[in-house]
Write a structure and sequence with these properties.
twelve-stranded mixed β-sheet
Length: 369
């Protein structure tokens, strides 16, 4: 990435996402029943979690780390000791545990170790401020994880989440100061929070920016509420996006979460072109190599296609694979000839052979060059 893909002055996001690779057998290392969003149900396969750098200028995701998720073996439940019955109410001398000191779940601990190792490896060569995760990580533990890693979290919360306006009323004179105001009603957000209104095909979209609080989070969050309303039927839907960075502009937050989807295209390319769905190995080392090779080829292909576009602007992934396969075949045939053809003839032969089976035809100057 440092040598071939990083662009000086560009801004990058660190994006994480899980992926399920279906497998039919039972011998593949780590195979289990994993929930697949594509099928909408648990399917037999291996589960992965990948980290990618997403360029805000190129708007592409470049995978930088992928690890297989291995489910811990189930342990029989231990008998729960029966505690003596105590008086109702709070025990004498007990103290409130701070939300900021809450321990992380096993999933967040595993992902935190991945991200910390990646940030250490990146070092000072790239300044990463934001970690973008999907709605599965829209919770307090993910906010704590990002804070302890020194980055800000951008994610999504459930549409039925209870958000509250910060309390700005007077102090009642006793007890702790109130921090929660009225609950946010997405159907009646005050106009002072409105940032943008657009309309298309009887659908009206309102975007609001609010600094809000959630009861499970120990700090105010920057929330962007997207409300869509059908002008004919009156039906309405809304989405909550949030960031722990309260200085982040609403349009930058929205754009960053939209860029998160670029990692899905990396998964698609790894499955469709580079054998992520097709590897037949079963041992731990071989499975790890096959998975990482597929994602490595996603990055390598983008560099090769970029160089190829200088002479062949329409070259695609399939054209690139056809080119190198044809070149390999042509070189093997050349070894059988009694004499090596002249350089000009050799170039034309390679151009024609590597063009067989292409999706897009080779430019005329390449064929005649």
């Amino acid at each position: 990435m440092r040598t071939h893909r990083l662009t000086p002055g560009d801004r990058y996001l660190l994006v994480g996402h899980a992926c399920v690779v279906t497998k039919a057998g039972t011998e593949t290392y780590g195979v289990d029943r994993c929930f697949s969003r594509i099928f909408g149900k648990p399917v037999p396969g291996v589960s992965l979690f990948a980290l990618a750098l997403v360029s805000c200028t190129e708007r592409r995701a470049f995978p930088v780390q992928v690890e297989q998720i291995i489910r811990a073996p189930a342990t029989p439940p231990s008998p729960i000791p029966t505690a003596p019955k105590r008086k109702p109410g709070r025990p004498k001398g007990s103290s409130t545990s701070a939300k900021a000191e809450a321990p992380l779940h096993a999933e967040h601990t595993r992902i935190s170790a991945m991200i910390r190792g990646r940030l250490t490896r990146i070092g000072s060569s790239l300044a990463l401020r934001y970690l973008v995760l999907d709605g599965h990580f829209g919770n307090h533990h993910a906010v704590l994880m990002a804070r302890r890693l020194g980055v800000h979290l951008i994610s999504k919360l459930r549409s039925d989440s209870a958000w509250y306006y910060p309390y700005d009323g007077p102090y009642v004179g006793r007890g702790p100061r109130r921090i929660y105001g009225e609950r946010i009603d997405p159907t009646a957000i005050p106009e002072r929070f409105l940032k943008q209104t657009t309309g298309e095909d009887h659908m009206e979209t309102h975007i609001y920016q609010i600094e809000a609080r959630h009861e499970t989070v120990d700090q105010p969050l920057h929330v962007v509420v997207i409300v869509k309303r059908h002008q004919t039927t009156g039906k309405q839907a809304h989405v909550y996006l949030f960031s722990s960075d309260r200085t982040l502009a609403w349009d930058a937050l929205l754009d960053a979460y939209q860029l998160r989807f670029q990692i899905e295209f990396a998964f698609r390319d790894a499955k469709h072109y580079w054998g992520l769905e097709d590897f037949m190995v079963v041992t731990e080392t071989a499975v790890t190599n096959a998975i990482n090779l597929a994602f490595f080829m996603v990055n390598l292909r983008r560099r090769l296609v970029r160089d190829r576009h200088r002479s062949d602007p329409n070259a695609s992934v399939l054209d690139l694979k056809t080119h190198y396969r044809g070149r390999s075949y042509a070189e093997e045939v050349m070894k059988l000839l009694p004499e090596t053809p002249e350089p000009g003839v050799l170039r034309r032969i390679l151009a024609h052979v590597t063009g067989l089976g292409r999706i897009h035809p080779l430019p005329a100057d390449v064929l005649t060059g």
